[in-house]
C-alpha cells in the first residue's frame, strides 16, 4: 500500500498540519472552531501532549470527544478542566496574560498582518457585512504569539485592509512596540503556498515554501509586492501519521479537510 | 413567593414595544421559546442585544420585531452568515451597534455591578472605536497607559434559560455559562425559563451552582426543550442540521415567512413545537448521561 503522504492532500490539510507544527508542548492556546481546532488537536496527539486548549465560550482544558461543530459545542465542556464565564475568560485568562497562542482567521490580511473580519467597503454602507470581531480583537493584542491560517489568494491578501478588526503590526512594527501591548503579534501566516513571517519592520515576507510551490506562485497571489527572506526554506513533507490522525481520528467525515 | 407563570403571560406582562432585550446564552441555553413567543405577540421596535445574535435574533428581525441589533459577532455559528440581519444591515434597513466580545460583556459587567462604565486595556487597532462613539479612551488616573472604556448596558429585560430552577427563581445552570449571570444582574427585569422546576431543597443541596438568585427574578416559566435548535448541557444536543437548514431557508423571504408561519405563528406553545419536531429529531438529539462526582458540603 502506498504511504498516505504520497497520495494527494488538500490545501486545508497542508495548512492544518503546518499550523500544528508551530505549537509547543505546554502552550495554552485560544482555539477557534474548524481548522484551528484540528491543528491544536493534532499537535496534542503528536508533539505537544500537554497543550491546554481554551475556548472563548469559557472552556479551559477541553478534550473534545467528537469534532466540535461550533465554538460552544457541548463536547468541549464534558471532561474539561474548568468552565468559566466569558468575562472571566477575557479578563483573568486573556487580559491577565495567561494565554500563549491565538489562532486567527479573516476575510482580509494585509502587509503588516492586520486582519479584517468586519466589513468589505465602507463601514456605514457595507458592500459585504462580515461577522465582526468576536474574540479576535483582544486575542491578537494579548496572546503571546498569534498565527493566521488562510488560503493564499490575492483578494484575501490586500496591501491594506478595509477595516482593521485585529492588530498585526499596524502601520509598522514600531507602532505596535510603542503601545507596549502584551502580545508579540502575528508571528506566522500559514497559507497553502508557504509561510509568511514578519521582518524587522513588521512586514510579512515569504520565509518558507511548501513542496512544489514557488516564490512566483506566492507573489502572484499576494496583493502587495511580496518580499522574501534571503534564504527561503522548504516546509517538511506531511507525514503519514499526521494525515492519518487528521483523516481517521479527528475529522473522519472531512468537514474541514476539503 | 412563587413566580411560576406561563411563558406567554411572562412575555406579555414584562415586555413592552421599544424595550432593550438581552436574550442570553453563548451558543448554549439560547432561549428560543421566549424569542418565538415575542414574535407571536407581535412586539415592535425592540432593541435586541446579544454577543452572538444567533438564529434567534435572525428570526426576530425577519419577523419585524426589531429596530436595532447590538452584537459582537454576527454570524451563524459554525455555518456562516446570519443572512437576515446581514442583508438588512447591507441594505440600510436596520440600525446596529457593535463591540468585540470583551467590550460587549464588559458593558454587561458594568451594568451588573452598578457602575457607569468599566475600563479595558488597549488593543492597538482603533477602527471600532472610531465608528462606535460609545467606545472611548481615558487617561489612567494612576499614571499608566490610557484605557478603553465602555458604558454600562442595563437591558429592560433579560431572558435566561436554565437547566433547573425553583418556583421562586433560584436557578442552577452548568456547562457554558457565557454571560447569563451578568445579563441577569444588569437587567431591570429577568424572565427565567427552565427545563425543570425543582423543589427549593434541590437548589439548597448545591448552593455553589446557583448562578441566578430569586431576588433578581421576575417570572419563572417551566419550558422544557426551550433551546432547540440550541442545546441544554446534559439534556439534549445542539441540532446542527437545523443551523445548516436555516442557512438555506433564510436565503429567501418566502421561505422565511413560510417557516415562521409553520413553526411560530401557527403554534401555541413550546410543547406543540416539540411535538411537531417529531420523535426522530428528538431521539437524534438525546444525550447519554455523564454524571459529575458529588461533593460533601458537610452537615453543620
CATH class of the largest domain in chain A, named: Alpha Beta
Largest sheet of chain A: 10 strands, mixed
The CATH topology of the largest domain in chain B corresponds to: Glutaconate Coenzyme A-transferase
Report the count of strand segments of chain A. Answer: 14
Order of helices and strands of chain A: HEHEEHEHEEEEEHEHEEEHEH
Mean pLDDT of chain B: 97
- Number of strand elements of chain B: 14
Q: Cα distance, first to last residue of chain B?
A: 27 Å
Structural class designation of chain A: alpha/beta
Topology of chain B as a string of helices (H) and strands (E): HEHEHEEEHEHEHEEEEHEHEEHHHH
Share of residues in strands of chain B = 15-25%
Q: Any low-confidence stretches of chain A, pLDDT <50, length ≥5?
A: none
CATH topology of the largest domain in chain A: Glutaconate Coenzyme A-transferase
**Average pLDDT rating of chain A:** 94
CATH fourth-tier homologous superfamily of the largest domain in chain B: Glutaconate Coenzyme A-transferase
Number of domains of chain A: 2
Largest beta sheet of chain B, briefly? 9 strands, mixed
End-to-end separation of chain A in angstroms reads: 23 Å
Question: Characteristics of this structure?
Answer:
heterodimer, A: about 260 residues, alpha/beta, Glutaconate Coenzyme A-transferase, 2 domains, ten-stranded mixed beta sheet, two-stranded antiparallel sheet, globular, B: about 300 residues, nine-stranded mixed beta sheet, 12 helices
Structure report:
The complex is a heterodimer of chains A (258) and B (300). Chain A is α/β, with parallel strands linked by helices. Chain A folds into 2 domains: 1-99 and 238-251, 3-Layer(aba) Sandwich (Glutaconate Coenzyme A-transferase); 102-235, Glutaconate Coenzyme A-transferase, CATH 3.40.1080.10. Chain A has 8 helices and 14 strands. In chain A, strands 4-3-2-1-5-10-11-12-13-14 form a 10-stranded mixed beta sheet, with helices on both faces. Chain A has a two-stranded antiparallel ribbon with strand order 6-7. In chain A, strand 11 and strand 12 form a beta hairpin. The model of chain A has no long low-confidence stretch (mean pLDDT 94). By secondary structure, chain B is α/β, with parallel strands linked by helices. Chain B has 2 domains: 7-102 and 153-284, 3-Layer(aba) Sandwich (Glutaconate Coenzyme A-transferase); 117-151, no CATH class. In chain B, a hairpin with a 5-residue loop joins strand 10 (157-165) and strand 11 (171-172). Chain B starts with 6 loop residues before the first helix and ends in a 16-residue tail after the last helix. The relative contact order of chain B is 0.17. The chains are: A alpha/beta (258), B alpha/beta (300). The interface between A and B is large, with 56 and 53 residues.
Amino acid at each position: 500500500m502506498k504511504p498516505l503522504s504520497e497520495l494527494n492532500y488538500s490545501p486545508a490539510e497542508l495548512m492544518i498540519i503546518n499550523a500544528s507544527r508551530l505549537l509547543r508542548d505546554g502552550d495554552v492556546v485560544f482555539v477557534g472552531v474548524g481548522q484551528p481546532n484540528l491543528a491544536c488537536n493534532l499537535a496534542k496527539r503528536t508533539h505537544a501532549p500537554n497543550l491546554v486548549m481554551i475556548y472563548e465560550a469559557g472552556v479551559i482544558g477541553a478534550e473534545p470527544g467528537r469534532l466540535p461543530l461550533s465554538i460552544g459545542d457541548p463536547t468541549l465542556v464534558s471532561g474539561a478542566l474548568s468552565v468559566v464565564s466569558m468575562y472571566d475568560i477575557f479578563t483573568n485568562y486573556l487580559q491577565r496574560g495567561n494565554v500563549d497562542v491565538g489562532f486567527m482567521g479573516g476575510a482580509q490580511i494585509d502587509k503588516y498582518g492586520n486582519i479584517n473580519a468586519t466589513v468589505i467597503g465602507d463601514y456605514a454602507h457595507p458592500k459585504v457585512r462580515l461577522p465582526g470581531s468576536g474574540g479576535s480583537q483582544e486575542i491578537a493584542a494579548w496572546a503571546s504569539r498569534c498565527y493566521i491560517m488562510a488560503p493564499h489568494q490575492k483578494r484575501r491578501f490586500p496591501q491594506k485592509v478595509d477595516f482593521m478588526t485585529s492588530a498585526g503590526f499596524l502601520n509598522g512594527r514600531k507602532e505596535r512596540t510603542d503601545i507596549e501591548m502584551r502580545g508579540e503579534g502575528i508571528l506566522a501566516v500559514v497559507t497553502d503556498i508557504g509561510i509568511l513571517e514578519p521582518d524587522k519592520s513588521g512586514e510579512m515576507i515569504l520565509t518558507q515554501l511548501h513542496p512544489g510551490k514557488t516564490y512566483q506562485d506566492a507573489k502572484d497571489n499576494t496583493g502587495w509586492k511580496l518580499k522574501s527572506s534571503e534564504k527561503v526554506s522548504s516546509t517538511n513533507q506531511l507525514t503519514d501519521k499526521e494525515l492519518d490522525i487528521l483523516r481517521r481520528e479527528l475529522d473522519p467525515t472531512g468537514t474541514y479537510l476539503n | 413567593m412563587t413566580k411560576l407563570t406561563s411563558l406567554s403571560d411572562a412575555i406579555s406582562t414584562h415586555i413592552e414595544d421599544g424595550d432593550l432585550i438581552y436574550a442570553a446564552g453563548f451558543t448554549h441555553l439560547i432561549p428560543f421559546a421566549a424569542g418565538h413567543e415575542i414574535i407571536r405577540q407581535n412586539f415592535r421596535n425592540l432593541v435586541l442585544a446579544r454577543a452572538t445574535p444567533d438564529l434567534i435574533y435572525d428570526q426576530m428581525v425577519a419577523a419585524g420585531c426589531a429596530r436595532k441589533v447590538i452584537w459582537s459577532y454576527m454570524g451563524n455559528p459554525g455555518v456562516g452568515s446570519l443572512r437576515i440581519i446581514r442583508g438588512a444591515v447591507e441594505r440600510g434597513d436596520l440600525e446596529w451597534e457593535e463591540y468585540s466580545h470583551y467590550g460587549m460583556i464588559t458593558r454587561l459587567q458594568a451594568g451588573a455591578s452598578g457602575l457607569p462604565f468599566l475600563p479595558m486595556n488597549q488593543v492597538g487597532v482603533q477602527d471600532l472605536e472610531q465608528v462606535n462613539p460609545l467606545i472611548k479612551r481615558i487617561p489612567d488616573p494612576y499614571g499608566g497607559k490610557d484605557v478603553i472604556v465602555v458604558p454600562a448596558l442595563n437591558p429592560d429585560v433579560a431572558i435566561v434559560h436554565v437547566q433547573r430552577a425553583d418556583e421562586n427563581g433560584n436557578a442552577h445552570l452548568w456547562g457554558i455559562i457565557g454571560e447569563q449571570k451578568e445579563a441577569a444582574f444588569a437587567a431591570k427585569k429577568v424572565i427565567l425559563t427552565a427545563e425543570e422546576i425543582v423543589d427549593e431543597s434541590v437548589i439548597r443541596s448545591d448552593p455553589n451552582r446557583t448562578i441566578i438568585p430569586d431576588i433578581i427574578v421576575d417570572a419563572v416559566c417551566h419550558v422544557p426543550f426551550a433551546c432547540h435548535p440550541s442545546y441544554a448541557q446534559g439534556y439534549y444536543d445542539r441540532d446542527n442540521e437545523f443551523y445548516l437548514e436555516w442557512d438555506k431557508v433564510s436565503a429567501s423571504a418566502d421561505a422565511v415567512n413560510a417557516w415562521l408561519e409553520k413553526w411560530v405563528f401557527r403554534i401555541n406553545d413550546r410543547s406543540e413545537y416539540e411535538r411537531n419536531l417529531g420523535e426522530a429529531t428528538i431521539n437524534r438529539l438525546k444525550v447519554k448521561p455523564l454524571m459529575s462526582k458529588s461533593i460533601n458540603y458537610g452537615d453543620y
